[in-house]
Amino acid sequence: MKLQFWTIGKGHESYVKEGVDLFTRRIANYYPVEWNIIAMPKNAATLSETDLKKKEGEIILNSLQKEDYLVLLEERGKQLNSEGVASLIHSRGNESVKNIIFLIGGSFGVSDAVKQRANYNWSLSLLVFPHQLVRLLLAEQVYRACSINRNEKYHHS
Fold it and tell me: Which of 4, 112, 121, 144 is positioned for an S-S bond with 77, CB 3.0–4.6 A?
């Protein structure tokens, strides 16, 4: 199984890059892992919020494979504790899922079409975080989940 982190926008800001890289390397000890930074549409500044979400949604949906398991980070999604995230990943492995894609949408969220395609909607918190910080939180929580599934000490250190 491969884990992928997809996000819309620019590359990692320096204040999160070191942490994202650290946790991504750690995850790689458990699963193949990669980041896919999806560039914003060229005319993003001229589009309405609805049109921008639709355009971004088309890019996302065209990039997904039918069998990909899409976890959408969504403010209205289900909140999980760390063991719940571990269970989500472990269960997909037991189902022989080839790719789990964790998607951080654009600044206005994602289109309804992407929401409908998502296999799981996950909310990191009731709080709102900058997208760059969500990248770091996501990478750390997925690493924590991997360590829980292997019964390693990181979760309680």
Answer: 121
φ, ψ of residue 32 to 5 degrees: the values are -60, 140
**Where are any strands of DSSP class E within the chain?**
2-8, 33-38, 69-79, 99-104, 120-123
Lowest pLDDT segment from 37-41, 78-82, 98-102: 37-41
In the β-sheet with 99-104, what is the strand arrangement from edge to edge?
33-38, 2-8, 99-104, 69-79, 120-123
- For the 2-156 domain, the top CATH level (class) is alpha beta
- Residue 10: count of CB within 10 angstroms of its CB: 11
* Tens digit of each residue's pLDDT (9 = 90 or more) over 96-126: 999 999 999 998 999 999 999 999 999 999 9
With 0.90 as the threshold, say if the pTM is over it. yes
Structure tokens at 98: 């080839």
